[in-house]
Write a structure and sequence with these properties.
globular, mainly alpha, hpI Integrase, Chain A, 3 strands
Length: about 190
């Protein structure tokens, strides 16, 4: 399968940093559970289904990570830990009452929505943020995370781990970003 950051018409399928910021500004105006959902997608680069499957016991406060379960790695499931900011941890705790739920050993999902509802929530926030086009999707957020991580110097092997890719070649597509992102990457060579 050939992976690309552009659709057949040559339109980009990832969010730029400015669009990711606009997305989060719009998400802040939503219900708290929608805001945390959008923040997890933006900050971790996880797949929509991985976020929707997230349960209370998959958030490790000590380590500051979310542990995602994926079935995408060559047909067998695997876990991966993705670091998140203290601010996101605190917001998840506040909105979803995680410590109390962990104490009660609750295993319920943070967002008990179906996949289509999660998708619609993201699309609504994209619309409120004025983001339109083939990149205005949960996958566009995932791709935007990959481009932003590479632009900021995250090693490709670390990005591969965080995104849960089985093959480094899949992760390497994020090096194909052009425009402002490519310019920022190239600027590191000009010093």
């Amino acid at each position: 399968m050939s992976w690309s950051l552009y659709d057949e018409a040559g339109h980009r399928e990832y969010l730029t940093d400015a669009e990711r910021q606009a997305f989060m500004r719009a998400a802040k105006r939503c219900e708290p559970d929608v805001f945390t959902f959008c923040w997890v997608l933006k900050e971790t680069g996880c797949r929509l289904s991985e976020a929707l499957a997230l349960t209370v016991d998959r958030i490790d406060f000590e380590a500051g990570v979310i542990i995602f379960w994926t079935l995408k790695k060559r047909g067998k499931g695997s876990h991966r830990a993705v670091p998140i900011s203290r601010q996101l941890l605190d917001k998840l705790e506040k909105v979803h009452d995680l410590h109390a739920r962990q104490h009660k050993r609750e295993k319920g999902r943070l967002w008990p929505w179906c996949r289509m509802t999660g998708y619609r929530r993201v699309k609504e926030v994209m619309e409120q943020a004025g983001i339109e086009g083939p990149h205005a999707t949960p996958k566009g957020l995932r791709h935007g995370f990959g481009v932003a991580a590479l632009e900021r110097g995250v090693p490709l092997n670390m990005l591969q781990k965080w995104l849960g890719h089985a093959d480094m070649a899949t992760t390497a597509i994020y090096g194909n970003a052009v425009g402002l992102e490519e310019r920022h990457i190239a600027e590191r060579l000009w010093d």
